[in-house]
Write a structure and sequence with these properties.
Distance between the termini: 53 Å
Structural class: alpha/beta
CATH superfamily: Metallo-dependent phosphatases
Helix content: 25-40%
Length: about 260
Amino acid sequence: MLHRETNDAGRSAIAKALLSENCDAIVHLGDLLGAVGSEKDWARFDRDYPPEVLAEKPFYVCRGNHDCGGFWMGSPREYNRRYPETLGQLREVDVDYVRLILLDTNIRALSSAHWNLQIQAFQTALDRAGTDPTIRHVLVCGHHPPLSNGRWHPPSQAVFEAFVAPFLSLSKSRAFFSGHVHGYERFTIQGRAFVVSGGGGGPRFPHLHGSEQRRAAEIDMGDPQPLHYVDLTVTPDTISAKVHGLDEKAGNWIELDSWTIQSE
């Protein structure tokens, strides 16, 4: 029988830390629940992220593969009711002088027509951000990573082919965030950060290390990696990140990584 790690206490600690932050926006990179059709999982989500609290927070969601439902995950009806804006379409959100571009990377759940429309919308969104003088930084967020050293979860070739080259072509682009692989990874291409932040509470997955890596990472932590979240501080000229990891044995937070990108 396959036994998967459960991190209920850690998941609740992550949620508590996120909701206590005095921040301008929270972005969830997908897979809100282990089983999207489970009433028990939704009840737990509502305990961790009370609806009355989320109603007062700018809380944005990228749809994950678990959120699409299926034989093991159940019906996505409740997810679709709560987050219809995430289904098969790109969204643009401005936070001061930052533009967030939020993607639905679930190519298997989308028709080829919808996928191609999103690719076209992505280029249009980049062009619009590039000519908007009020926007200094562009961040892209989606569930499936274009780059990853996950041992069990390879990177998404579809996401890489559709979005990476246009993203790199924009001088205002700074970082591409994704989840799906349950750990923390960071890569750099042409001065942009590609960050996998999948440490919100799911069972932690192993990674390829050292010479086994598909692509050399900026940080190569041992497994299992701590649960974590990424905290961004933004000025007109810089984006700085601190990655807060949960030391469950000691019961405190540690800094897993930090990085800064300067505007061009």
